[in-house]
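FW: tagging you since you asked about this chain on Friday. Here's the raw sequence from the shared folder, copied in full. Didn't touch anything.
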Amino acid sequence: MKRTAIVLTLLFSVSILSGCLGGDSSGENDAVVTDLQAQIDNLTVINQQHEDDINSLKDQLATSSSLVSEIEGALSEANDTLESLTETVMQKESQISNLSNLSEQLREELENSAAQNSSHISSLESHIQNISQMMEILEDERDEALDQISLKESQIAQLTDDLDTAEQRIGLLITHLYYSVSGCPESNPGNKLSIGFDDGSPGGIQGDGILTGSEIVSTFGECPGNSGLVKDINPLGSHNSNPHSMVTMGGVLYFIADDGVHGNELWRSDGTMGGTNMVIDLNPTRQIIVGGSIVDENPGTDFGEIVAGDEKIFFSAAVGNDEIRELYVSDGSGSGTIRISETFDCAPQLFSNYPEFTYSGVNSISVMPASEVGFDTAYFSAFRCSYENVVCSGEEPHISDGTEAGTFQLVDLFYGNTDLTMPNGGSITADLEGSQPSEFTRSGNNIYFSANADMGAVLTDVGRELFVINTSSPAGGVQLVKDINYGSSDSSPSMFESMGGELFFSADDGISGMELWKSDGTNSGTVIVSNIAANGSSSWPGQKISVGDTLFFTANDGISGNELWKSDGTYSGTSLVKDIVSGSSDGGVSNMIEFDGDLYFIAYSSSLGVGTQGTEVWRSDGSDSGTVRISGSILTDSTTALYLTRAGDRLYYVDEDYGNGAGIELFSFTPEDGITLAVDTRPGSQSSDTRNLFALGEKIFFVANDGLSGDELRYHWYNPGPIIS
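HL: got it, structure written out here
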């Protein structure tokens, strides 16, 4: 604080004076300085909460603030006086030094002239006497100034104590003002409450009633344990903003929503009302002619996929009159959201007479995060077509580092040539299909994908097979892993999942049917794990997830229906976990996630039978006996569990409980607490149609309709107490 700086300056000045004068005066001044420093070091007082009336506190605050102003005025006057006295002392010290030197010179002249001129000696002696008198006067004036300095230091110490007391009072009053705020308003969830001094410190404006910048002393963290509306993004009555396509980057939620003005655009939220804003209007209002009149249109943006790395968001979008989605990148800001490059600048109408052309834009985007390779790297499928180059290479694998220079086609895996007539009468050579890569998936240091390949003599038609990208050399590292279904037939690898540095997937070798395979990225290391359905039939391995060193997946052996299976990557270690719905009927296993070291999933309950309803949450440790419906899961005889999601140390899902007075709402589960109704957004038997669950730390975000705001972004945070930051 300013007062501390002034006191330290005074102490420094006193120290210099004391060193120049020497003697007892220096010792006394050192003692004063030491005592003053000890007082300064013990100025902080921790305030305690009290429960005074708010209006009374405000009156006391005004009185204390007035007192501070008076004290600061007196302190400023004392500092000015002290500065003047210090300057006077320095002047007197300089004069004393000059006179002392002059006296010494005169003494030398006296000694040299003593034998020559006695009258001159008398004159010199008279001068010396006068100088001695002047020195005595100056020393007296100096001592008086030092006494005044001591007095002002005492006054400053007292004023400092008074100021500290006043500031403590102000801090106490402000703290009590904070504690008088009860609860966390649902209309402003997650708000942070600050305490400090509205004194105009850097970054703030004195007396504006808002604590900003250096005015803030401490901040009290987010409101605890509440659920509520994050923001009514589309505030027009009960209209819906319908947030969807949620991803997270840097602890911030990004999603697509419609505010009723701009159409579907990219939004971001930190979980608070004030921190929920549109990132950019990619497709702003445009004018169109309707019935001969010019009207404004807010078309919004046609978004495709959206994925997030550590530092960048990649997404596909069509803007304006574009019919083909291109690749965009965003750092979370409006200025940092740009189209990377235009891979497709040919008019889609050019291909209207060719049914094999089915391309709608960039797709199958996958990101290798910056934490792994130094910068976020996107792998995706794109159709490269250019009027300028008069060439179309078809839909092929691409790579991007988020810059135009770093975005390019990795390889042309599929050669195809069709001569198309251009609108201007010219022609263009086009590959209308390409390799159509899909399912870019990371496993270890490799990126795997499925693609068609026919590169003529380089790689004769092998059908749709498994390919790999060596991430250490992406430009030249695209290789066919194995022609699983040898020749031009497709093995159609799909449903990828990584476990233990290997890729597990479903594929058809033309003999065993669609079964479970694995690969380490080499031809010899790509093998069938188990032929689950015998006699050439397919088991159709579906959703896969690794829990520890166990791969869980769905499959149909032709006897038990489509049920839950597991594998350790070996033939002998692959087996049926449980026939959830006995016989050939399907167990309806879906939405598998890992939680607390076990597998959780949604499946039919045998007591409810098989149908479109009757799905509940199950848990499995990999054994038949350890695969059970979680206790108390059945709420009524008509339940539909959906959107199983983990947030912190809790599981969340959507279910219906009309029998107990709740519609389709948000439920939570822990082994300790069992199943509880987490949020009844629309109390009573009416449903809020809760959906689109997304976890961000310990918070769960979701879309629900409370009957007033429409389908909007809401949140729930299971937190038993306040967070102080």
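FW: The mean pLDDT is 80.
HL: agreed, and Residues 2-180 form a domain with the Helix Hairpins fold (CATH 1.10.287).
FW: great, closing this out.
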